[in-house]
Amino acid sequence: xxxxxxxxxxxxxxxxxxxxxxxGGPVVLIxxxxxxxxxxxxxLKMWQFFRIGRSDDRRIHHALAIWRSGNRPxxxxxxxxxxxxxxxxxxRMILAMDSMPVATVREDVERLAGxxxxxxxxxxxxxDAIAQVAPLLGLFGTVLGxxxxxxxxxxxxxxxxxxxxxxxxWIALLTTAVGLGVAMPVSLVLSAFEAxxxxxxxxxxxxxxxxxxxAPVEQQAQPDQRPMSAQTGAKVSYGSA
Length: 241
Known about the structure:
Layout: H1 2-6, H2 10-24, H3 26-52, H4 57-68, H5 72-81, H6 85-96, H7 102-121, H8 124-156, H9 162-213
Helix pairs in contact: 2-3, 3-8, 3-9, 4-5, 5-6, 6-7, 7-9, 8-9
């Protein structure tokens, strides 16, 4: 089997795919279009996450400790060298702390963090819908195929050919297999994307809460570390969009 798959040429693969489409009917065609849409969304999200980068919580905590020790330029340089949305928002917060009230800065941080997380979640509902609808479409195609197979069986009357019924059943089950084949990988990729966003949200909540409350950071600062001049508010939280 592996040798046959390895020796499969592009033209043979296209021929097999077109044969599956013709056997499965319009339901398989719809599932094929959904798989193309899912691949496009997955590719765009992977490029988006690669371009955004991943927030390094250790680097951010270290920069926060440096800022508390009074060395703001070094803290900003450390944040600028890191990737992900959290360092950029924290750098903006540090620059705004000297000229704006803490409450205003907190609102701005919450707005920016919420917008970043919303951008990262964009497109995930499409993948979620495909992962849920694809198996149902496959099952719907199977039901339609079974109805057609038994209709032909009834039309044959007393001259029933078992091979005709078996052929109708396996063609009907083909749509279920295609639906599951589309839904399973999309569901796995969706879970990976959601885990990536959940981690970014956790880093934001941890870092910004520590910044506004003056809570201890993971990496210890220098002995002259001092907290922010204004410590207010409860934990900063950014809910799902």
